[in-house]
Amino acid sequence: MLKSAHRGLDVVLTALRSEHEELRRELVGGAPEVLKRIGELGEAPSDDDWLFFPDWDLDLGDQLLTARLREESQQVTDEIADEDWRRFQAGVDHRIAHGTETTGVDPLRAEEAPLPVFSLLVDEHRAAVEAAPGEWSDFSQHAVERAMSPGAGAETWAVRTLRDEVEQRVERDTPIFEGPFRRVLEDRLRQLETYEKPQPKPWFRLLAPRRFGVGLAASMAMVVCLVVGSRLSERTSGYMPLSGEVSVDTVDFEGDLVMIPEEGVTMVVLTEV
Amino acid sequence: MRNNWITPGIVAVVSLGMLLTFLGSAQAADEVGVTIEIMKASKEKTGFQGQSKRYKSQISRFGFAGARLMDKVTALGRSVGESVELKFRDGGGPVQMVKVKVLSSSAQSTKLLVHIPAYRFRTETTHKNNGTFVVFVPKKELFLAVRPSRQ
Q1: Do A241 and B54 touch (CB under 8 A)?
Q2: What is the ipTM of this complex?
Q3: CB-based contact (8 Å) between B137 and chain A?
Q4: Could you tell me which residues come within 8 angstroms of residue A272 by beta carbon, excluding any fewer than 6 positions away?
Q5: Quick check: helix, strand or coil at residue A20?
């Protein structure tokens, strides 16, 4: 019973992991993609959008980039691969370096450069999504609060973009997250409650511990029967040792012969045939 | 109720077996079984196959490393004067024959006449306790064994 319960629980957990993975793909498809696109822009400083950065025209950049990022994020639904995240991080690093060259702002100081904060939020976001789906809402709220906190370089274009995206996704994804996931969980629990241990086939019962002794005894009995039967077959088919006596009374043969009397058998060798 | 036929069935089978045994013992007083075996020996290491294993020691002493049973006949219930025959081929030659005739039979011994016409060989043998008589033909690598069987 305990084994069957474990087996059923494994089935449920496997199904839940699969469902969880699918839900996570849907949930993380938006905001991380926005961040990735920002990173790609960071990799291409010659892009028209990038030209706003040297002047730190935050208002204009915010409008243009936000519109573009929102449009692109709607087209992406697949999971963000690790490679994309590495590219994004490389883009952030590039932007930090580029921003340092052009503006002279120390990227390590969060108060003056929003991008390290941005990167930190990305890392936290990624960790939270991978940790558990139930923490998604908490993280999103935390990210919003973090983005709006005074010491995090708030009110820059990037942080505002992130904040908006997070707010949208929390508002849009929370019911999706709770609804289907909870239904799946309830379905699986119902399956577990009604799970019945499958009955093994008759031949398979021999492998069960309680039946193993019976099967072993039957096998040994069969082997004994085969051995005895084989012995009896040998005896009845002429394998018994030669016994008895034989005497040759008369011989009529024109050629030479040799007679070899032994116990149980007498041989005559016809040498000239 | 459904198994009521088992007990009478067992009784009937046992009774039939006892009757057959009694009839068989009554006939066995003057009847004898005769077995003729023909084996082909080989110098090659083919091993002793089947019932030729019984004659392994006799065959091996002539330098053979293996043998196989070519043919065998066992005739039961032969009375005095009746014969048993077994035909065989020695290599690619014509069909030969071994003929065994029961000359006398008693509880103590059995007298047989063994005749192989092709070899112009004829002998009378007395067998006690089912002893075996073997004719070995070296050029043909043949072993012909004859033995009576009385229970």
Answers
A1: yes
A2: 0.80
A3: yes
A4: A255, A256
A5: helix
